[in-house]
Amino acid sequence: MAKVVKTFPPLPATERGQTCHINAAQGGRIIYCNGSNVIWRAVGPMLANEEKPEDVFTWKGHTRKTTVAAMTTNGQWCCSGDVTGELRVWGAKGDNIEKGKYRLWDGPIKDAGWSSDHGRIVASGDGKEVRAAALIWDTGAKTGEVGGHSKCVSSISFRNQRPFRVATGGEDFLVGFHEGPPFKFTKSNNDHTNFVNCVRFSPDGEFFATCGSDSLLQLFAGKEGDKIKEMAKPDGMSGSLFQLTWSPDSKFIATAGGDKKFRVWSVEAGAQVSEVAVGDGSLDCMLLGVSWVEADKVVGVTFDGTIMFWKVDPASGQAESAGSQTGTQGPLTSVAVCPKTNVIVQGSSEGNLAVHLPAATQQAKIGKSVQHIIAHSPGYGGPDDSMWVISLDDNVRKLTPESGIAGPVVKVPEKSLGAG
């Protein structure tokens, strides 16, 4: 049996009240952003807890914080955007060479996607004047104007069947519809009463759906752009819907919600068919992003960066939890191993700890960047298996690997430059 090597790729960076894009990539993978990097990972090894270094790839071409990444359906090219409004196009295979770099506006890129022929890219965000664009991927040339919004355009989607269409959703509560190419604004809908957080065309192009901070999930005609219906809200549902994703057969929609619920909706019935509570219902369990990776697999991400997995019956839409994977956000700053228990503890610049136990991984948060993690030496024969964590808030904390909970706090009067 091949030796399994434990890897520690950082989790998706998340922000409260904002969609976290975790997108499906070719070959049963997911692609997401963390810091200035773009990361993709294979779902199969993650579910089996057999992830190896070769299953994880990090692209480091950006110099500023990345916000969104998307891969072509043939797995050849990726595009990724950052907080400065810069969009980069680069190869997903071989040497991962950068093909293009385009400044779209002065502000963050919020969403991006590819056309099915891999010839066009659409992107949206928060510029002063321009807030969305459609462009030729290898030249950056604009193919019309994607407008109609007065505030940040949070989401954008491309209809992959002819005639091509582009749908947008923004913080002005509007859903925009554009015909082309060259694309031009055709009509809008203002039935949402709060931010429109996500817009996505169905894989077959028959529909596009929108969800927002008003808890509404709405369905539109993919070709004409007219509203068809609003999904019936289950009793007691509240909070924002941050992101939606379509099943490959276009029969179901899955949503990520602020009420810590993963929901699956039937397009034909116009109603929810399944829901699964996420975690213990705490703030960290708020579901910010979701992506339908395979016919029966959906992946999501919570506020604390935990990657969630669900198995969904392709026929009925019934969902059940299939596990999770947790760790740390941000660059790793320290890693230590307890020689007595072989428990691995990692710390990050975001101030959280991941304690990798034999059967599971637990998290602990200290709020400031982890500087050092100290474990006993291999020659230590005593009964104590605790470890010590030194952080940028000038505190030392005792960590018990088996519980994964930070213990008493000892204040250090000055900044710690080293420890041992």
Structure, explained:
The protein has 420 residues and is mostly beta strands. It has two domains: 22-325, 7 Propeller (Methylamine Dehydrogenase, Chain H); 332-411, Thrombin, subunit H, CATH 2.40.10. Helices cover 1% and strands 48% of the residues. The strands form nine sheets. A four-stranded antiparallel β-sheet has the order 1-2-3-4. A four-stranded antiparallel β-sheet has the order 5-6-7-8, with no helix packed on it. It has a four-stranded antiparallel β-sheet with strand order 12-13-14-15, with no helix packed on it. A hairpin with a 2-residue loop joins strand 24 (287-294) and strand 25. The chain is globular. Mean pLDDT is 91; it is low at 1-5.
Task: Count all strands and give the number.
Answer: 35
Largest sheet: 4 strands, antiparallel
How many helix segments? 1
- Looking at the overall shape, the CATH architecture of the largest domain is 7 Propeller
CATH top level of the largest domain is Mainly Beta
- Integer-rounded radius of gyration: 22 Å
The general outline is globular
CATH fold assignment of the largest domain: Methylamine Dehydrogenase, Chain H
The proportion of strand residues reads over 45%
Percent of residues in helices comes to: under 10%
Question: Domains counted in the coordinates: how many?
Answer: 2
CATH superfamily of the largest domain: YVTN repeat-like/Quinoprotein amine dehydrogenase
Determine the structural class based on helices, strands and strand pairing.
mainly beta
Q: Determine the mean pLDDT.
A: 91
Low-confidence stretches: 1-5
Strand order of the biggest β-sheet:
1-2-3-4
End-to-end C-alpha gap:
37 Å
